[in-house]
Design brief:
The structure is a single chain. By secondary structure, the chain is α+β, with helices and mostly antiparallel strands. It is built from two helices and two strands, in the order βαβα. Strands 1-2 form a two-stranded parallel ribbon. Helix 1 (48-60) links the parallel strand 1 and strand 2.
């Protein structure tokens, strides 16, 4: 039986599940380019453990990535100025190929 793409977990006879095609750690070795991972450590929807599985798979595959954690944030974590700047810095570095201003203040003068 091949599992559906969503719904309750179903374990097939061969040990695979209907969630396997959604497991980022199983395709981490295929990463090309730059990756910025962010996770709210108090996320009860997607536990931090799931992100750490991806991190471990990326390390095992010798892939470069950056990780940003938000200690007191839940699913959807903080959308404040700090995270906005970090994403902006990442895009400027890796898409534009330039160095962004150090600790730029979003919305500042």
């Amino acid at each position: 039986m091949t599992g559906a793409k969503s719904g309750l977990l179903t374990v097939n006879e061969d040990g695979t599940t209907n969630y396997d095609n959604q497991d980022n750690q199983l395709v981490a070795h295929q990463l090309e380019g730059k990756l910025l991972i962010a996770h709210g450590m108090m996320d009860s929807n997607v536990p931090p453990y799931n992100t750490l599985l991806v991190v471990e798979a990326l390390m095992d595959a010798n892939k470069d990535f950056d990780l940003q954690v938000f200690p007191s944030s839940r699913h959807g974590f903080r959308q404040g100025d700090y995270w906005m700047r970090r994403r902006w810095d990442y895009f400027v570095r890796h898409l534009l190929g330039a160095e962004p201003p150090h600790e730029y203040q979003i919305g500042g003068d």
